[in-house]
From TrEMBL:
Pro residues bias: start-end ranges: 497-516
Protein name per its UniProtKB record: Nif-specific regulatory protein
GO biological process: nitrogen fixation; phosphorelay signal transduction system
Subunit structure: Interacts with sigma-54.
Species for this entry: Pararhodospirillum oryzae
Organismal lineage: Bacteria, Pseudomonadati, Pseudomonadota, Alphaproteobacteria, Rhodospirillales
Keywords associated with the record: Activator, ATP-binding, DNA-binding, Nitrogen fixation, Nucleotide-binding, Transcription, Transcription regulation, Two-component regulatory system
Pfam families named in the record: AAA_lid_14, GAF, HTH_8, Sigma54_activat
Function: Required for activation of most nif operons, which are directly involved in nitrogen fixation.
Region (Disordered): 488-536
Domain Sigma-54 factor interaction residues, every copy: 221-449
Molecular-function GO term, any one: DNA-binding transcription factor activity
Length: 580
C-alpha cells in the first residue's frame, strides 16, 4: 500500500513501537504528575509537550482547544513560538485539526509537504534539506465530543506506516489525560463564575446598610478619614436640635469650622452666627463684650452698646476657649444659660434672649473641675452634647487632601501654579503635627512662599532643614515633659543625638604612681623576703616529699599547692628527686 495521507486511521495491535514499555510508563507518570501539580493549564500543557519531545523525538508539538465561542485556538506549543503558530506567515493549520475533532479519530500525515492542508505550514517550518516530516494528531475528549487536539511533528525514517501505531496509542492515552485535566479546569472555572454571580445576586438582594460615611463629610470639611466621617455624622445628628454643644479637641483641629457647620445645618441657619474668643479678653472686657453696656457704664462708654448675646438672638453664639474664663464670670454665664436672662453692664433692665450656645475648649475641663478652677454646674450645663475632634495625627490619610487644599488656596491668593511632589506629601503624612490643621496650613504656606519651582519637593519642607517650628517648641519644652504647650498636643519628640564635640586639649600633671602590692606569679610560690626564708622553704619541701614518699601529688596536697607548683619549687631549690 503506498504511503498516502490518511485522516481516519484506526490503529491495530502490533508488537512494534518507537519506545519500550518501561520508558512509556515513566513518561506517562511524569505527564500525570505535571497535570496534577498546578492549576495553570497553559503552563502544564507546555511542560507535557516538552516531555513528549524527549520520548517521541519530535520536532514540534501543538495543543489546540475549542473556546466557548466555538473557535479553535492554539494554547500550547513546543519547538516554535506561540506567535508564529498563531500569526506566522504559515500558521498551524487549524482546519485539519477541526477535522480531527469532527471525526473524533486520530490523524496521521506521513509527509506534510505532500499534503495540501500542511504544505504551506511545512514549507515555512522546515527547509528543503530536511528529511520528510510526519504528523500525528489525536483528539482531546472525555465522555462527550472532542474539544481539542494534541499533535506532534517528527522526522519520518522511511519505515512502514504501521510503526506509527504504538505512538498513536500512546498519544491517545496522553490525550485522555489532557482532556480530563482541561474538563476539570473548565468545570472549576464555571463553578467559580457561578459562585461569583450567586454572591453578587445575594448581595444585591440583601438589605444594604446606610451609605458609607464617605459621602457624609460636611461640605466645609476637607478630608475623608473615618474619624472625620464620624464627626460629620455627629454634627448632622446634633445640628437640628437646640442642645448646647461642647467641642473638645486640641488647638488647631478646626473647632470653629465645626461650630459653623452646626449652625448652618440647624433651623437657625438664616440667623446670626456670632463668635467670641474668651481667652482674648480680660474679665471686664469679656463681660461687656457678651452682655453689652449702657451709656456711661464706665469711662469711655459714650453710647449704649449691644452685647454678643443680643446680637446672636435667634441664632448661634460660639464661645471659643470657654475653659479660660474666670470663676467670677462663670457664675454670670451660668445664669444666662439657665434663665436666658442678663443685664447689660451698668444697667438694671433684664433682657431675655433665645440663643443656641456652642462652646469649645482644648483644656481638660474635668481636671479643672476637680481642682476648683471651673464650676461643676457650668460644666454640666455646657457639656450636654460633647463632640471630640480628632487630632491630625489620628487622621493622617487626610494630610494630602488638606495640603493640596491649602496649596490651592495659596495659589489663588498669590497667582501661582504650585503643586506638591509625591515625596513631599509622603513626608508631611509622616509628621505628627502637634499644631494640627493650623500647623499644616502654616507648613504649606511656608513651603509655597519659599518654593523656587512649580513643584514642591520634600527638600523644600522646613523639617528637612531642621527648621520645623513644632520640633523647636517640643525641644525647648524638654524631653519627658507631658504638659501641652498652648493647647497643642503633647506629642512625643524624637531625641536627636548632639553632634560629636571636638576634644579639648588641656594639660594636667600626671598622677603619682600607685605602688602595686607584690603578687606571686601563677603556679609559683611566694619566696619571702630573704635567704632564711629560702632555706626554710627548702627544708619544708624536703620534709613534705619525704612524708609523701617522694610523690609530688601527695606532697602538693600536704602543702596545699598544685603539682605544678611543687615541681617549680623543687627545681628552684635544686632538690633532686628520689625514686623509691
Amino acid at each position: 500500500m503506498p504511503d498516502t495521507p490518511s485522516s481516519g486511521y484506526t490503529p491495530r495491535p502490533t508488537n512494534q513501537g518507537s519506545a519500550d514499555g518501561s520508558l512509556a510508563l515513566i513518561t506517562m507518570y511524569e505527564i500525570s504528575k505535571i497535570l496534577g501539580s498546578t492549576l495553570n493549564l497553559e503552563r502544564s500543557l507546555r511542560d507535557v509537550l516538552n516531555i513528549l519531545s524527549s520520548y517521541l523525538q519530535m520536532r514540534r508539538g501543538v495543543v489546540t482547544l475549542r473556546e466557548d465561542n466555538g473557535a479553535l485556538e492554539v494554547v500550547a506549543v513546543t519547538g516554535m513560538s506561540m506567535r508564529s503558530a498563531r500569526e506566522g506567515e504559515a500558521p498551524f493549520p487549524l482546519e485539519a485539526m477541526n477535522e480531527v475533532i469532527g471525526t473524533a479519530m486520530p490523524l496521521i500525515v506521513y509527509d506534510m509537504a505532500g499534503d495540501d492542508r500542511f504544505a504551506p505550514y511545512a514549507a515555512q517550518a522546515y527547509t528543503v534539506e530536511d528529511d520528510i516530516q510526519s504528523l500525528i494528531a489525536v483528539p482531546l475528549k472525555t465522555t462527550g465530543r472532542p474539544f481539542g487536539t494534541l499533535s506532534i511533528e517528527r522526522h519520518r525514517d522511511g519505515s512502514s506506516r504501521f510503526q506509527f501505531e504504538h505512538d498513536v496509542r500512546f498519544l491517545t492515552m496522553v490525550g485522555n489525560l489532557i482532556g480530563q485535566t482541561v474538563a476539570l479546569e473548565r468545570k472549576v472555572a464555571a463553578d467559580r463564575e457561578r459562585l461569583f454571580l450567586e454572591k453578587a445576586r445575594l448581595e444585591k438582594a440583601l438589605p444594604r446598610p446606610d451609605p458609607p460615611l464617605k459621602g457624609a463629610v460636611l461640605e466645609n470639611v476637607v478630608g475623608g478619614s473615618e474619624a472625620m466621617l464620624r464627626v460629620s455624622a455627629q454634627v448632622r445628628q446634633v445640628a437640628p436640635s437646640r442642645a448646647t454643644v461642647l467641642l473638645r479637641g486640641e488647638s488647631g483641629t478646626g473647632k470653629e469650622l465645626i461650630a459653623r457647620a452646626i449652625h448652618y445645618l440647624s433651623p437657625r441657619a438664616d440667623k446670626p452666627f456670632i463668635k467670641v474668643n474668651c481667652a482674648a479678653l480680660t474679665e471686664t472686657l469679656l463681660e461687656s463684650e457678651l452682655f453689652g453696656h449702657e451709656k456711661g457704664a464706665y469711662t469711655g462708654a459714650t453710647s449704649e452698646r449691644k452685647g454678643r448675646f443680643e446680637m446672636a438672638h435667634g441664632g448661634t453664639l460660639f464661645l471659643d476657649e470657654i475653659g479660660e474664663i474666670s470663676p467670677y464670670f462663670q457664675a454670670k454665664l451660668l445664669r444666662v444659660l439657665q434663665e436666658g436672662e442678663f443685664e447689660r453692664v451698668g444697667g438694671n433692665r433684664t433682657l431675655s434672649v433665645d440663643v443656641r450656645l456652642v462652646t469649645a475648649t482644648n483644656k481638660d475641663l474635668e481636671d479643672a473641675v476637680i481642682k476648683g478652677d471651673f464650676r461643676a454646674d457650668l460644666y454640666y450645663r455646657i457639656n450636654v452634647v460633647p463632640i471630640f475632634l480628632p487630632a491630625l495625627r489620628e487622621r493622617r490619610e487626610d494630610v494630602p487632601l488638606l495640603a493640596r487644599f491649602f496649596l490651592d488656596k495659596f495659589n489663588e491668593e498669590n497667582g501661582r501654579t504650585l503643586r506638591f511632589a509625591e515625596n513631599a506629601l509622603l513626608v508631611m503624612g509622616q509628621c505628627s503635627f502637634p499644631g494640627n490643621v493650623r500647623e499644616l496650613e502654616n507648613c504649606v504656606y511656608r513651603a509655597a512662599t519659599l518654593a523656587q519651582q512649580d513643584v514642591i519637593q520634600d527638600f523644600g519642607l522646613s523639617c528637612r532643614h531642621d527648621q520645623c517650628l513644632s520640633a523647636t517648641l517640643w525641644r525647648r519644652q524638654g524631653s519627658g515633659a507631658s504638659k501641652a504647650i498652648g493647647g497643642l498636643a503633647s506629642a512625643p519628640v524624637t531625641e536627636v543625638e548632639p553632634p560629636p564635640q571636638e576634644p579639648t586639649l588641656t594639660w594636667e600633671p600626671p598622677p603619682a604612681p600607685t605602688p602595686m602590692p607584690r603578687q606571686a606569679a601563677p603556679d609559683t610560690i611566694d619566696d619571702g623576703p630573704g635567704e632564711a626564708s629560702d632555706s626554710e622553704e627548702r627544708a619544708r619541701l624536703i620534709a613534705a616529699m619525704e612524708k609523701a614518699g617522694w610523690v609530688q601529688a601527695k606532697a602538693a596536697r600536704l602543702l596545699g599547692m598544685t603539682p605544678r607548683q611543687i615541681g617549680y619549687a623543687l627545681k628552684k631549690h635544686d632538690i633532686p628527686l628520689k625514686r623509691l
